Structures are given as C-alpha cells and as structure tokens.
From TrEMBL:
SUPFAM superfamilies noted in UniProt: DNase I-like
Residue stretches making up the Endonuclease/exonuclease/phosphatase domain: 95-346
Lineage: Bacteria, Bacillati, Actinomycetota, Actinomycetes, Micrococcales
Domain of life the protein comes from: Bacteria
Protein name, UniProt field: Endonuclease/exonuclease/phosphatase domain-containing protein
Amino acid sequence: MVQHTIRIAAYNVENLFSRPRAMNQPVGVAAAVLRAHARVNELFDQEVYTPEVKAEILVLLKELKLLRDDGDVTRTSTFAILRRIRGRLLRRPQNDPDGSQVTVVASGRGAWTGWVDLIKDRIEEKAIANTARVIREVAADIVGVVEAEDRLTLARFTDSLLLNPVDAEPLYPHVMVIDGNDPRGIDVGVIATKAYPLSMMRSHIDDGPFGDRVFSRDCPEYWFTFPAGSALAGQQLVVLVNHFKSKFGGNNPASIARRKRQAKRVADIYDELRAAGVEHVVVLGDLNDTPDSEALQPLLADTDLKDLALVQPFDDGDPDEDRPGTFGNGTKSNKIDYLLLSPGLFTRATNAGIFRMGVWGGINGTLFPHFDTIEADHEAASDHAAIYVDINLDE
C-alpha cells in the first residue's frame, strides 16, 4: 500500500553564492553600512532635494566612503559603490582630499538616475556545497528558502548542486523567488519537487503605504495542490514564507514595532485564507524573535497556528542537550526560525525536528554534531538550522 506524506521545511541559507561585504564585518560596522545604504537610496527617490536632504545625502555618502569617488570593488575597505546611469548627482572639486567641498548638484530624482549598491563577495565554495548537502539530507518536498539572492541564483544553485544521482535531473525543478523590499537583494522563495508544481502565487510587497511598506522583504503566498491518490487530493496547500525585520545593530523599539506590525499582517493574511475556506496553511521563515517576544504574539498567540515544536515526536538535532533554538548555538534565546501549521495540518503531523548538521556550533564547533565536510566555521552551510515537519496525507 502506497503511503502519502509530505515533508515541508524552512531554511535560512544566508545567501547562496555571494553576500554583502559589509556583513563580514563586526556588527557595529555592518549595521552602520546597511543603515546608510538603505537611507541614502530612500533619499535619492525624493522628488525634490531640499537643502536638508542634500546635507544628509553628503553625510551618508561620507559614511559609505563614496564622497570622493564612486567606490572601487578592489578596495577591501570599500563596502558600496555609487552607480550613475544618467545625469549628475555631485560636484567633486579637485584638490579636495577630505571631500569637504563636495556638493549635491541634482535638484531631485528627475535630474539624474542612479543608486548605491552594496559590494558583494563570493561565498566559500565549501559553504555552498554544505548548504546543498543540508537540503539534500532534509529531503523535503517543499522548502521555504530565506535569504536567496534572486530566482535565477536559486535556480542555478538547485540545477547545479541538487540533482537526482540516477538521472541527473533537478530534485527541485520548481523554483520561485519574488523580489521584495530589501535593498540588499535578500529575498524569500520556495523550491519544490516534481510532485508539487506551483499552482498560484500572490505577493504582498505593496502592503502598507508607499515609503512605509509592512514587509522588509515580502510575505508571498505559494499555492500548491495535494497529489492524486492522497486523502487530500485536489485540495490546496498555501505556504507563506517570511523574513521579519532583523535585530541586527540593536533590538530597539522601532525594530520591535516593525516585527509586531509584520506579525499582525501575516496573521490577517492567514485569517483571510482560512475564512476563504483554505484549511491547509503553513507560515514559515525567519521571524527574528523568540516565542515569548511581544512582537510575535499577534501570530503565535492570537491565531490557531501551531509551532512544529509541539509535534510529537520532535528531534531538536542534539543527542546530548536540550537545544530548542534554531540559530547559532541553538539556545532558547536563539529560537527565531519557525514553521507554523494550521489545525488541519497539525492534526496530521507525524514527525518534526531541527536539522543542525550544517551549523558549526560554538567557537570550536563542538556543541553538537555537524557534517564531516565542515572543518571550520566559515565552511558552515549557515548559522541557521533547517526545520522540517512530516504530514500524513492518508485517511
């Protein structure tokens, strides 16, 4: 008798082939660069550059070391470059070594075309291979992927490193990423096996007013259909993939409020799906906060979604210690990745766990078992463990 099951997983891959150079710096340096990059691009979009806007642009370009020139990827101390396509943004006098005489000459967005890009460095080859190994060993039918660069990069990764050893066909032929609101280009997406082609998708990148969008990336809805022969054949499965506002650079009130707003909107989307008759919904991804946090209560306490940690049996990925966290060392305060199930799925869940073999674990990598192909922390697949759940599709 054929048994019908589906395994669903969530995994923060922390970029596949490249990542912003600034992210390899100490937290304080990285946070300052990322903040300046995001803010200066916001200012560039202003219709009119007032004296105040021009002054702030100059301050931010100085922070990004782009005041005297447009940046150089060969300089390891440079984290960003200024791309100018049309028109003129700055006047840079000669013999001005400190940039004190640089001025903004563009009157507003219509006067020039350009932006600031973060410089990206290639990720260690072994780390890329270990990322693929995690996905192969978890062997999920559907994987919600966090921090993918873009769809083509994710497809290149799956088509080259995740192949069936028998026929050399991709294990995950269905790949989708919708570019979100993050100016660094780290997005959320999904990969799925041949049995689960994507039937529909819906983006929420525009939720919220212009200039104050709800989602830092997106909360895409990925719709699948349960296969023929199962008890749920023909019914819909909707997977919501998320990456909430990070605590990177400090867990300040604005950061908490942003995550709470995101959690509330995801809860509303979930409630709308359920009200429309969709019984099988998964909310997954990196929510960047702990289960007891105020920010996540609209999603964790005010809906009927159930965390995969409540599924029995549950394997936390460490044979020796109680380790509920999903990030870094896996402590309780490091539980930031989630896979939440609607009641219709939770009652069918037969097994769940945390797969942390791709994480280094501690200074010396000795906190829990990891792949023998990881010999140093920079070869780890990710600082995040993968999480998964098995669902019984039979009666």
